[in-house]
Design brief:
With 506 residues, the chain is mainly α. The chain has 2 domains: 15-201, Up-down Bundle (Growth Hormone, Chain: A), CATH 1.20.1250.20; 251-506, Growth Hormone, Chain: A (Up-down Bundle), CATH 1.20.1250.20. Helices cover 76% and strands 0% of the residues. It contains 23 helices and no strands. It has helices spanning 2-11, 18-40, 46-61, 67-88, 98-105, 113-141, 147-168, 180-185, 188-197, 205-211, 215-226, 232-244, 253-257, 263-278, 281-294, 299-327, 329-353, 360-377, 382-390, 396-425, 429-447, 456-466, 476-505. GO terms for molecular function: D-glucose transmembrane transporter activity; fructose transmembrane transporter activity. It is found in: Cell membrane, Sarcolemma; Cell membrane. Keywords: Cell membrane, Membrane, Sugar transport, Transmembrane, Transmembrane helix, Transport. One of its GO terms (biological process) is D-glucose import.
Length: 506
């Protein structure tokens, strides 16, 4: 009888309970929503913020700011957020987003654009920390049949945050000379809500059992999350993972980097996270307004078209939540990067011929929308899911630190480089992004396996073969070729391009 009950519990599929749904929504709203909001919040009021920078400089020094200095300060304002995110993945801190939100809110009163740059850096630290912790936390809360769908929820809230910033950025709301500081300061609200509500929800049962050895708390947490009392099968799976890791302690970042048994998992998450950001998603958003203007969209209507693009992003991410468990992770990644690659190539052609062909600007608008659709179904959400699934409990925190560092450093690169890249190369800058999309697609095709409906232990065994533990051994030479070809090359190209452009100025 007992054996039959255990067999039934093995076959029981997880469900979306109220506790699991609320824990997912609150953690994603308080963290991922902020990430998306702060990515887009400076786009709409850019004109007024630059005017504030110039007026402040004029008041201090009695002369207007040079255009090159203004471009540099604006690049810093945009890129300080991802740079802070890069540091936030490496330093455990207790800084809440409330402090930088207040700083940005009072920047105009204090007549200091430096406050905005510093505040963006601090809020980036908070976002960097939470953007790693939340996907890991949700991945460990979820039953394996819902792990992909719930793992996409943080990205869904990022897109909702972007859309919210775009809506608030409409000139009749807050995207004007009097409302932009309030718009920057609103980022404190999600932080306060998460701070007040999240403590009432369970800690990760997997963390409590494997890392803390507290089976009683892990059992209670699982019972609340699953909505039933019999959680022995899931606890048994956690114990098996724990036993397989007994010889290993919790890995540090350095230990992870030097651990040959995790080499391909590590290279894969670096490739996917770098490809996600260096594929040009933020550049598409930066360039969108000028594309719409060239297509003949009236200046006052561009903001509404931008909101429409943000709505498409949200809708397609919602679609990814529902299809990821049916299609799997690998197919969404391959199709997403393929669509983005094709859209960037076609966009480059359209931008270069839109002055000579009256219908070409509409192709440009279509390319932007197609790119957003492609990125929303694969490159944006899936790397978070796969990073959770590729590593066992002892290596997962360090893996998220590495993945997050790469993610934010790449984001910082695009934010800092793109204004110069656009100035020097114009529309041809999207060819670089298409090459990065293609390189990432090839890597995923060759290396990344499907992880749908597999336990963390089963996934690690798949990679054990590639890492040479089960059969054969990959040489360091082959690993280095993959590393240089698919990971380092794109970021080196970006930095060299920026260097050439800056050098040409002088």
């Amino acid at each position: 009888m007992e054996e039959k009950q255990t067999e039934e519990s093995h076959e029981r599929r997880g469900r979306l309970t109220t506790v699991l749904a609320l824990a997912t929504l609150i953690s994603a709203f308080g963290s991922s929503f902020q990430y998306g909001y702060n990515v887009a919040v400076v786009n709409s009021p850019a004109l007024y913020m630059k005017a504030f920078y110039n007026a402040t400089y004029l008041g201090r020094y009695g002369r207007p700011m040079e255009e090159k200095l203004l471009t540099l300060l604006w690049s810093l304002s945009v890129s300080m957020y991802p740079l802070g995110g890069f540091l936030g993945t490496l330093l455990f801190n207790n800084i809440f987003s409330i402090v930088p939100a207040v700083m940005m809110g009072v920047s105009e009163i204090s007549k200091s654009y430096e406050i905005i740059i510093v505040a963006r850096f601090i809020v980036g630290i908070c976002a960097g920390l939470s953007s790693n912790v939340v996907p890991m936390y949700l991945g460990e809360l979820s039953p394996k049949n819902l792990r992909g769908a719930i793992g996409i929820v943080p990205q869904l809230f990022i897109t909702i945050g972007i859309l919210s910033a775009q809506v608030l950025g409409i000139r009749n709301i807050l995207g004007n000379s009097t409302g932009w500081t309030l718009m920057l300061g609103l980022t404190a609200i999600p932080a306060v809500i998460e701070l007040l509500l999240l403590p009432f929800f369970p800690e990760s049962p997997r963390y409590m059992l494997i890392q803390r050895g507290d089976e009683k708390t892990a059992r209670k947490g699982l019972q609340r999350l699953r909505g039933w009392e019999d959680v022995d099968a899931e606890l048994s799976e956690m114990r098996m993972e724990d036993q397989s890791e007994r010889a290993e302690s919790r890995l540090s970042v350095f230990a992870l980097l030097s651990n040959r048994s995790l080499r391909w998992q590590l290279i894969s998450i670096v490739a996917m996270n770098m490809g996600q950001q260096l594929s040009g998603v933020n550049a598409i958003y930066y360039y969108a307004d000028s594309i719409y203007a060239t297509a003949g969209v009236k200046e006052n209507d561009i903001q509404y078209v931008t909101v429409g693009t943000g709505a498409v992003n949200v809708f397609m991410t919602i679609a990814a939540v529902f299809i990821v468990e049916a299609t799997g992770r690998r197919l969404l990644l391959l199709s997403g990067f393929g669509i983005c690659c094709a859209a960037c190539v076609l966009l480059t052609v359209a931008l270069n011929f839109q002055d000579s062909m009256t219908w070409m600007p509409y192709i440009s608008i279509s390319c932007v929308i197609i790119y957003v659709i492609g990125h929303a179904i694969g490159p944006s959400p899936i790397p978070y899911v796969v990073t959770t699934e590729m590593f066992r409990q002892s290596a997962r925190p360090a893996a998220f630190m590495v993945a997050g560092s790469v993610h934010w450093l790449s984001n910082f690169t695009v934010g800092l480089v793109f204004p110069f890249l656009e100035s020097g190369l114009g529309s041809f800058s999207f060819i670089i992004f298409s090459c990065i999309c293609l390189a990432t697609l090839i890597y995923i095709w060759l290396v990344v396996p499907e992880t749908k409906n597999q336990t963390f232990l089963e996934i690690s065994q798949v990679f054990a073969k590639r890492n040479g533990e089960a059969k054969g051994t990959q040489t360091m030479k082959n690993i280095s070729i993959y590393l240089l070809t698919f990971i380092l090359f794109p970021i080196i190209v970006n930095y060299l391009t920026m260097g050439v452009i800056v050098w040409s100025w002088y």
